[in-house]
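ESCALATION

Customer reports they have been waiting on this structure for their group meeting. Please prioritize. Original submission:
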Amino acid sequence: MIENLDPKQAWDVLLNNASAVLIDVRTAIEHSFVGHPPKAIHVAWKEFPGMQLNNGFVEQVRPHAPDKSTPVLLLCRSGVRSVDAAKALEADGYQHLINILEGFEGPLDEHQHRNTVGGWRFHGLPWQQS
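Update from on-call: job pushed to the front of the queue and completed.
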């Protein structure tokens, strides 16, 4: 089952469960230059050029969460790619998957800007840039 939590709820899971793992499924450029939560593990779901699917995604997550009952939280830009990534992990037998709603940057506002109506950064949660 895939659980959906908002960014603040997801942060609470990370603070209160030392075994929880946060996987940032965005591209390497997004992870490095836009920013990411502390200790987020980068494993791209899709990557440039062309946003091709990372066929090795599940295999690349396994070393970070070898126990399939480990809570695995998934973060993308707006909460869309992370759902597909969670479904792939669910198909592989992972049991405690959490999609972070709104993602890191949140949805677009009426001016086509992010970070103004939702997302990890909007909610003032810890983040850093590489």
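Sent to customer with the following note: Residues 88 and 100 are 16 Å apart (CA to CA).
Escalation resolved.
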